[in-house]
Amino acid sequence: MEPQNVGAPSVAFDLDAFTLLVLREGGKASQLDGATIQRLQAEHLRYLFGLQAAGHLLAAGAVAEKPDGESLTGLGFFSTESLDEVRRLAEGDPAVEAGLDAAEVVRFVCPKGAISFQGGSR
Fold first, then answer.
1. CATH label of the domain that carries residue 41
2. 19 within some domain
3. Mean pLDDT split into 10-residue runs, the chain, 122 residues
4. DSSP code string of 9-71
5. Are the C-beta atoms of residues 90 and 100 closer than 8 Å to each other?
6. The domain containing residue 40 runs over which residues?
């Protein structure tokens, strides 16, 4: 059976919709040496700070602890609603380009006003 894209749930209250970047361990992460990983992580942070300064990225962070076998490494909330635009921005991340991280982009909805971002547009 094909998964269905049902969109936002039908609820009796207003919703906020965000474009969420989900970062997971990339396919080449296990092949990279420690110095390369440190360099890519520094470049990744500079890239994210640039996206935030340009007004694209509302907030991002790393997963502090993860169970063994879990590949989730970080999340980012974007101001743009375009999934394609966030995919394009994610593909420009040096850590994604090098295969340290792999990017997924999804739509995230929650009750209106439940999440706010300091200095962000919401």
1. 3.30.70.1060
2. yes
3. 54 87 95 97 97 94 82 92 93 98 94 82 50
4. ---SS-EEEEEEEEEEE-TTGGGS-HHHHHHHHHHHHHHHHHHHHTTSEEEEEE-S---TT--
5. no
6. 15-111
